[in-house]
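Predict structure. Input: MAM domain containing 2, 217 residues.
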Amino acid sequence: MLLEGVLLVVQALQLANALDLPAGSCAFEEDTCGFDSVFAFLPWILNEEGHYVYMDTSFARQGEKAVLLSSDLQAEEWNCLRLVYQITTPPGSVSDPSQLNLYVRFEDESFDRLLWSTKEPSDSWLIASLDLQNSSKKFKILIEGVLGQGNTASIALFEIKMTAGYCIECDFEENHLCGFVNRWNPNVNWFVGGGTAKNTHSILPQDHTFRSEHGYF
Ligand SMILES: *[C@@H]1O[C@H](CO)[C@@H](O)[C@H](O)[C@H]1NC(C)=O
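Output follows.
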């Protein structure tokens, strides 16, 4: 009986872990959860201590790319894709900043659809919230970093999270981080930003199949 109880607890914990990380998600705790760097480009490097992946000037030059590709995903209903990221640039203005792009690649298409893009540097992690339309086709998510100008440029991804349903508003005042736990640093706050923030805008037309701005912010 006791053993059974222990087993049940273990199973419940395993289930909880599985639920913590739905397909298309990764917290970069120990690995990249099936998000693999595309061989033709530079790799995203896993920082196991900080639990993020990054590219920076220690191994990349201006204009070089690192591309992360998810495993096959399916979305039978609308999903919310959240990305926690940070772009850093050296002080002062740069004419060619680093850029982070997110694409969707459908199984039967030979091109990638750009869903979201940002060049906005920040002192803190930012959260981009992107609504993903349901589709009967399998797809992969591509996350591309293009290193910009400057000797201290970097791009880092802290978490990718895909959850069922539309994106809901994240609220920092009430310490509600859209289900994210601020594991990074208690002294550093996250900002709600990216796809739906006022200072960043989607480069897609509103009538595109995928709408990254869904009126939730
Ligand atoms: C998306 O979901 C709606 C509602 O369930 C359904 O009517 C529609 O056919 C779906 N679209 C695709 C492309 O699967």
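The longest strand covers residues 135-146.
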